[in-house]
Write a structure and sequence with these properties.
single chain, 302 residues, alpha/beta, five-stranded antiparallel β-sheet
């Protein structure tokens, strides 16, 4: 048994995969990887994947990803503010783990004041060619970036990568202005696909993904940190089939091998199809902890 990093409940071994053990919390359904990778292992992993792996592939398909994925995140934020008769103009946005900056480019086009944090030095250089001086090679726990109150903080495919996600979420709470908005996109370990595919679920990727949230554990983490007005939805993506196939080499190598005989056809295809692998998006608003209501409710994103 292990102790859950989110709620403190007991985690039980569910399977072993690629020399790592996966434990699920019996209380909040959070899944964690053990042993936790150390900083040296993590740094080496990301350097390799940037040169020839999923991050190299993400750079290759950056424009398609911006159009089909990041534009959708922008739409959700616009809709959230439209409910309050507001726009994204002049909103201070911090994207943690911004990679090469495509999401921030779109937010800047909406009139937002954008800032990004990224640890991969090569990605920071690329991002700053588009957003000069607005992307920092810094950890969010450090003070090596503008220490101001932000209106929006985004964690897009990020929270599952860190060794202490509660510390990250609490840091976001402190950096947000009153009624500031947090957006998190991450795999959902309680999704139908995760439950039924078990260790073959693509999100189970050692070193890359360390803690995998369930809907319940992510809600618990956000409420505990001081967020309210949570809204949730499953995340379906429109992606080029070639991108998805090559991503399986990193996330789901077993399926990549099965499809190998038709690799040439897939890579030459221009088809863009909807894909769902059990991911979720959740939005929350910062509230003063002393003012949080006792009864809380999660609604679907409009």
């Amino acid at each position: 048994m292990k102790k859950c990093i989110i709620c403190g409940g007991l985690q039980k071994l569910i399977f072993k995969y690629q020399n790592f053990s996966y434990y699920r919390c019996q209380k909040c359904q959070q899944v964690s990887t053990y042993p936790l990778p150390d900083n040296k292992m993590i740094k080496k992993h990301y350097a390799q994947k940037f040169r020839a792996g999923n991050y190299q592939l993400l750079r290759k398909y950056s424009e398609q990803y911006k159009t089909n994925i990041y534009a959708y995140f922008v739409k959700l934020l616009k809709n959230r503010y439209a409910q309050q008769n507001e726009t994204l103009k002049n909103k201070k946005v911090l994207d943690i783990g911004c990679f090469t900056g495509e999401f921030l480019e779109l937010m800047q086009q909406e009139g937002a004041k954008v800032y990004g944090l990224e640890l991969q030095p090569e990605a920071v250089k690329i991002a700053n060619k588009k957003l000069s001086g607005h992307v920092f090679q810094a950890d969010v726990m450090s003070y090596n970036f503008p220490q101001k109150k932000y209106d929006i903080i985004t964690l897009l495919g990020l929270v599952e990568h860190v060794t202490n996600p509660m510390q990250l979420i609490e840091r976001c709470y402190k950096l947000l202005s009153k009624d500031g908005l947090i957006m998190i996109q991450t795999p959902n370990s309680s999704s139908f696909l995760a439950r039924n595919m078990k260790k073959y679920w693509p999100a189970y990727s050692p070193i890359e993904h360390i803690h995998l949230f369930s809907k319940k554990s992510l809600e618990y983490a956000l409420y505990t940190a001081g967020f309210e007005q949570l809204s949730f939805q499953s995340h379906r993506k429109k992606l080029p089939v070639g991108y998805v196939y090559n991503m399986l080499n990193n996330f789901g190598p077993e399926f990549h091998k099965i499809l190998k005989p038709v690799e040439s056809f897939i890579n030459n295809s221009r088809m863009v199809l909807p894909f769902y692998i059990g991911e979720m998006i959740i939005l929350g608003t910062k509230k003063e902890k002393s003012h949080l209501p006792k009864k809380r409710r999660v609604s679907k994103i409009v």
